[in-house]
């Protein structure tokens, strides 16, 4: 790998600073000792993915079945940790020199930084040549999870819809509203929330969300972005891929935030929402303390798990005029599970990855758990695996609302160097962030959302420009135009032909 990239990574990647501070090393000598010496190979797996949580989770069940099949030869120990605990544990493991054999990229980090610093092994040669064919086309992209022709991870899931309107049917019915007719417009959401709150008499409210989350995908941010996608999907999420500029101060975002403020002024939001975590908000929704919750794909199965008695439905997030919102995704992203470069058992790790972690038996369990769609189309379309009736709507919403957006890494793999400089396109080093600003205005500490978001935008655009300049100075072939896709129609999938048209 280019030495200039390694130097820039070590200087600029704050999100991966914990990896730079100490060499990633396992307890092994890295010679690839095999289980064929009569000893059972012990493989450790750490992650923050919810599919590993609990003995009955699809991940842990997959590990159990794999261990039975390979008893005496390979044994896998999988450990789930919530994000904050996981990030701390990984940092401690790096410092102690005792890393797990397989581990997930920590929050605000990137596969590309791990590769640049020599912390991970490529999958090539450890899995079969046909292994990639089981996944969606486009699941492996140079500059994302393939670096210099070597593969370092795989897509953990299929497309993930990050914004769904969950509605509690019992709450609607108790308020005299039709439990089978969720709101389609902003006005309907506001009016129904007022009615529910009035009849709830301080016990039941219209809306709940996890406003106390501090991450970039907090309840406040998710709520605003979900609404903005129904106005101008190209700016929802903060970066406009048509213009190649940050757009946190867009009219769509400001109008969506203003709508949230109106719900607050109406008294229609469960008061504790502003300090709740996402999990707490989901439980209160399931318990019937609020009618509406805007959240991502994971909330469906979590509500089923935590409040199984809840009667709820799923629908598209309301838009100003009731039209269909559009959300976007890319088939592959630079996060996932990686192989430690110091594992004692690379061969056995490859066997586990191919015949356990990415095998159809795991993804069938995964789909049946209701956690998310899988990266294997044939499994997603097998209705016999759907865990409950709501999953049919869940699948249909994914098909109706999700579109493939352009990916700068596909256009130019060297943009990876820019992203490593920034930490991520969201630029987590820039404070206060989007969530901080919205929470500050919601609390009344600030009044000028537009001005604060404009200043934030300016910082981010300057940061992107400086990162591009730095990479170019180090010999990288990149340009700000690599992040600009003027021919993108957010209502359609961005295709290979669209990339060709740019040239």
Describe this structure as you would to a colleague.
This protein is an alpha/beta fold. The chain has three domains: 3-156 and 333-387, D-Maltodextrin-Binding Protein, domain 2; 164-329, Periplasmic binding protein-like II (D-Maltodextrin-Binding Protein, domain 2); 408-502, no CATH class. The protein is built from 20 helices and 15 strands. The chain has helices at 3-12, 17-21, 58-69, 83-96, 111-116, 169-174, 186-200, 219-228, 251-266, 278-286, 298-306, 346-357, 360-369, 377-380, 390-401, 408-411, 415-422, 434-443, 449-473, 496-502; strands spanning 41-47, 74-80, 102-104, 120-121, 146-147, 150-151, 164-168, 205-207, 239-240, 245-246, 290-295, 312-315, 327-329, 337-340, 402-404. It has a five-stranded mixed β-sheet. Strands 8-11-7-12 form a four-stranded mixed β-sheet. A hairpin with a 2-residue loop joins strand 5 (146-147) and strand 6. The longest helix is centred in the C-terminal third of the chain and has 25 residues, at 449-473. The chain is globular and about 70 Å long. 48% of the residues are buried. The model is unreliable at 1-34 (pLDDT under 50).
Query: How many DSSP H or I helices?
Result: 20
The span between the termini is 27 Å
> Any idea how many domains?
3
- Strand fraction: 5-15%
């Amino acid at each position: 790998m280019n030495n200039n990239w390694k130097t820039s990574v070590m200087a600029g990647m704050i999100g991966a600073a914990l990896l730079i501070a100490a060499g990633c090393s396992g307890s092994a000598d890295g010679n690839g000792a095999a289980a064929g010496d009569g000893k059972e190979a012990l493989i450790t797996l750490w992650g923050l993915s919810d599919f590993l949580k609990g003995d009955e989770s699809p991940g842990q069940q997959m590990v159990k079945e794999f261990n039975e099949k390979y008893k005496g030869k390979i044994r896998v120990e999988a450990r789930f940790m919530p994000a904050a605990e996981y990030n701390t544990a990984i940092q401690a493991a790096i410092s102690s020199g005792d890393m797990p054999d397989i581990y997930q990229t920590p929050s605000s980090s990137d596969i590309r930084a791990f590769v640049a610093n020599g912390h991970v092994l490529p999958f090539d040669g450890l899995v079969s040549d046909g292994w990639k064919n089981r996944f969606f086309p486009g699941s492996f992209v140079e500059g994302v999870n393939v670096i210099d022709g070597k593969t370092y991870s795989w897509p953990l899931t299929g497309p993930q819809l990050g914004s769904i309107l969950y509605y509690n049917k019992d709450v609607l019915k108790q308020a005299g509203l039709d439990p089978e007719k969720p709101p389609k417009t902003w006005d309907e959401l506001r009016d129904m929330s007022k009615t529910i709150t009035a009849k709830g008499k301080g016990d039941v409210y219209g809306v709940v969300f996890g406003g106390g989350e501090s991450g970039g995908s907090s309840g406040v941010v998710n709520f605003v972005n979900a609404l903005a996608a129904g106005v101008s999907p190209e700016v929802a999420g903060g970066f406009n891929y048509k213009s190649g500029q940050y757009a946190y101060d867009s009219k769509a975002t400001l109008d969506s935030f203003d709508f949230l403020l109106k719900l607050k002024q109406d008294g229609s939001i469960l008061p504790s929402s502003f300090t709740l975590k996402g999990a707490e908000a989901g439980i209160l929704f399931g318990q019937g303390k609020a009618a509406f919750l805007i959240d991502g794909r994971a909330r469906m199965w979590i509500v089923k798990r935590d409040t199984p008695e809840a009667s709820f439905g799923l629908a598209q997030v309301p838009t100003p005029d009731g039209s269909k919102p559009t959300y976007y995704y890319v088939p592959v992203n630079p996060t996932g599970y990686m192989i430690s470069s110091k594992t004692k058992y690379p061969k056995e790790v490859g066997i586990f990855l191919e015949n356990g972690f990415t095998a159809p038996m795991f993804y069938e369990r995964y789909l049946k758990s209701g956690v998310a769609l899988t990266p294997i189309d044939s499994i997603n379309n097998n209705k016999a695996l759907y865990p409950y009736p709501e999953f049919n709507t869940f699948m249909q919403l994914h098909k109706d609302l999700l579109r493939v957006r352009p990916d700068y890494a596909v256009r130019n793999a060297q943009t990876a160097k820019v992203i490593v400089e920034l930490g991520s396109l969201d630029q987590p080093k820039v404070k206060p962030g989007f969530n901080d600003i919205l929470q500050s205005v919601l609390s009344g500490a600030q009044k000028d959302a537009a001005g604060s978001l404009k200043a934030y935008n300016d910082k981010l655009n300057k940061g992107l420009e400086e990162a591009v300049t730095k990479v170019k100075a180090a010999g990288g072939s990149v340009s700000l135009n690599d992040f600009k896709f003027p021919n993108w129609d957010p209502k359609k999938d961005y295709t290979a032909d669209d990339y060709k048209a740019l040239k």
